[in-house]
Amino acid sequence: MEMVSLDSLDSLLARDGAVIWHPFTQHGLGRPLLPVAEARGAMLRDTQGREYLDMISSWWVNLHGHGRRELAQAVAEQIQRLDHVQFAGATHEPAVRLAERLLEKAGLAGSAKVFYSDNGSTAVEAALKIAHQHWVNRGAPRRLFATLRGSYHGDTVGAMSVGRSSGFFDAFHGMMFETVSLPVPLIWNGFANEEGEKAALEEVARLLEGDADSMAALIVEPLVQGAGGMRFHSPRFLEKLCALFRDRGIPVIFDEVMTGFGRTGSFFAYQQTGIIPDMICLSKGITGGILPLAVTIVAENLFDSFLGNDFSTALAHGHSYTANPVACAAALCSLDLHEQTDSLGQVDRINRRMAHHLGLLAGNPRIEHLRILGGIAAFDLAGVESAYSAAAGREMAAYAQENGLLMRTIGNVIYFIPPYCITDEQIDTAFRVIGEFLGRQKAS
After folding, report:
1. What is the pLDDT of residues 104-153, one digit of tens each?
2. Are residues 147 and 206 in the same domain?
3. Which residues pair with 273 in a beta bridge?
4. CB within 8 A of 344, min separation 6: which ones?
């Protein structure tokens, strides 16, 4: 790789500062940016040639590793064949084939439809609008959506509304619609929280006794609440929770934007439960981490409620790049790579290696609530502020980056969600850096 001179690096950062507004960033703090030039496998390289182990899969999107030639070839070939066409009134092979394969992987062939969009927020937004209009089309409008406390479902207005308890959107409360926030009994290694589950389900049952007829849908992040702090709940709780809503004819939406495509150890998180959701939202890893794409899988009975003889009952929703053929081609190639690389087997290997290291850290008094599911591991820094901007988490992330490890903490929550190509030795390196940070803190 050709190195960038320090003058050029300073110029790049200055040019960035002059023209760019970064996401989830307080620019007034003046924190330095990481100037990334290349990526291969589980590694990123900056403009000076320094390497960083990508332990967060570049915001959870990268599955198979950076720089996969198979994905690049699939994209290049599709661009030459068909780059884009509007999806209202047209169709194409990549979109149809991807929908067929996703429904097959989900075990829903013949019983659901696929609605395409662009990212996780829009997949959720589509699901919320489908649930809302489903009741309108039936002549019995319902206005309330039930969510789990601490949920995060994206940054568009509907997604913010069902994620308002995450704490990210306090400035936007005047824009949001009303929701009902439900208790979520958290679990971690060695703590099953059965009493908490019982109390939570009793609270939800009491709520539904009075408000069930106002509920349009329940939306959850199955098994792991991601941006809310990698908070885990049990399949048992989720099954019983969903049954309370299903018994009353209320649709259930699973937001699998983060948990889909193997992250929790099964291809979809819901496959660890006895629940088949009415809608499933997918994005992030769907293309292997190289292009934006999202889908909302919708049960046939919901789709049927939009059928009619005029446009009034149709879903008037879509995007310019809906079902972009190039993104669909990348997603199809990513599905091939899952099979060719045995991605679920890789997740099992990653799980065992990270569990080993969590076990070694378990006695450290500076951390608590160690937890792991599939390829997702996390723990909390004990006795420190837990807000998103918590200083202890930022300090750890800065130390990690100085030592060749890319992390992005959530308040006091330290988490790992690496690409499936990561080696055991690279996992060892990551936990060595974290152990050094914890040891340094203890010593000071």
Report:
1. 999 999 999 999 999 999 999 999 999 999 999 999 999 999 999 999 99
2. yes
3. none
4. 262, 265, 266, 267, 338
Q: Is 246 exposed, middle or buried (0-12, 13-18, 19+ CB in 10 A)?
A: middle
**Which amino acid type is present at position 397?**
A
CA pair distance 336, 342, nearest whole angstrom: 10
Q: Is 411 a domain residue? A: yes
| Coil, helix or strand at residue 292 | coil
- At residue 17, what are phi and psi to the nearest 5 degrees? -60, -25
Buried b (16+ CB within 10 A) or exposed e, 290-319: bbbbbbbbbbeebeebeeeeeeebeeeebe
Token pair 């292997």 is found at 288
Which pLDDT score is estimated for 9? 66
E strands within 111-200? Answer: 112-117, 144-148, 179-182
Strand partners for 281: 255, 296
Summarised one tens digit per residue, pLDDT across range 254-293 is 999 999 999 999 999 999 999 999 999 999 999 999 999 9
Residue 402's CATH number: 3.90.1150.10
Phi, psi of 8 (to 5 degrees): -65, -40
